[in-house]
Amino acid sequence: MSDAAAPGPPIRVLIVDDHQMFSASLSVVLQAETDLVVVGTAGTVRQAVTMVRSTLPDVVLLDQRLPDGDGVGAIGEILDARPQASVVMVTGTATDQVLVSAIEAGAAGFVEKTRSVEEVLAAVRSAAAGEALVTPKLLARLLPRLRRGNRAEGPVLTEREREVLQYVAEGLSNAEIGQRLSVSVHTVRNHIANISGKLGAHSKLEVLAIALRDGLLP
């Protein structure tokens, strides 16, 4: 069965950046797309959390450096206010430790400010679809830095869920996982949703962080 479906409501995007020119320019770009709508812009962590509650965004584009805090520290508050949201860190330059901390906090991924318009648009759509916004090369570099734990009592994953988890750790997209398993993208999304629910994760990347912490990945 095909995964094709009628177009749904537009993806709701909140931009969090204290550089007004950047926010305004990005807003214009996003608003020009028929499947995207900018529900607001915020310049501080406080404004961001308040606006998340009032505008209910699907994707939050979050700068790391803000006047009253940092993006990594804001991720938890944003996800508490809107668990369904995907938080994408918009970075200039960031250390591996910042990126790792963002993953452990629940970020869906990263997009660099220097990327092209097309890449930013693709990142927003991918985040809304539940994809992990990180290249396999960067993921391979960051995974060893995530906290690892010993096998402990925790949620029991099915054999298929463990298989999907391993493919996620390899950096495969939902479509690529579906091809490996000969199942639809919809089925893959359901498996990932089940894994996320069992682990209490908000994103694919946080799934990996928790799985490593709990000793569910080799």
Q: Which CATH top level class of the largest domain fits?
A: Alpha Beta
User: Whole-number radius of gyration?
Assistant: 17 Å
Low-confidence blocks of residues: 1-5
Choose one word for the global shape.
globular
Assign the CATH architecture of the largest domain: 3-Layer(aba) Sandwich
Average pLDDT for all residues: 89
The overall strand count is 7
Q: What is the total domain count?
A: 2
Residues in helices, as a percent range? 40-55%
Largest sheet: 5 strands, parallel
The largest beta-sheet arranges its strands as: 2-1-3-6-7
Provide the fold topology.
Layout: E1 11-16, H1 20-31, E2 36-42, H2 45-55, E3 59-63, E4 65-66, E5 69-70, H3 71-81, E6 86-91, H4 96-105, E7 109-112, H5 117-128, H6 136-142, H7 159-169, H8 174-181, H9 185-199, H10 204-213
Parallel strand pairs: 1-2, 1-3, 3-6, 6-7
Antiparallel strand pairs: 4-5
Helix pairs in contact: 2-3, 3-4, 7-9, 8-9, 9-10
Describe the protein:
With 218 residues, this protein is an alpha/beta fold. It folds into two domains: 11-133, Rossmann fold (3-Layer(aba) Sandwich), CATH 3.40.50.2300; 142-213, Arc Repressor Mutant, subunit A. The protein is 49% helix and 15% strand. The chain contains ten helices and seven strands. Strands 2-1-3-6-7 form a five-stranded parallel beta sheet, with helices on both faces. It has a two-stranded antiparallel sheet with strand order 4-5. The chain starts with 10 loop residues before the first strand and ends in a 5-residue tail after the last helix. Residues 1-5 have low confidence and may be disordered.
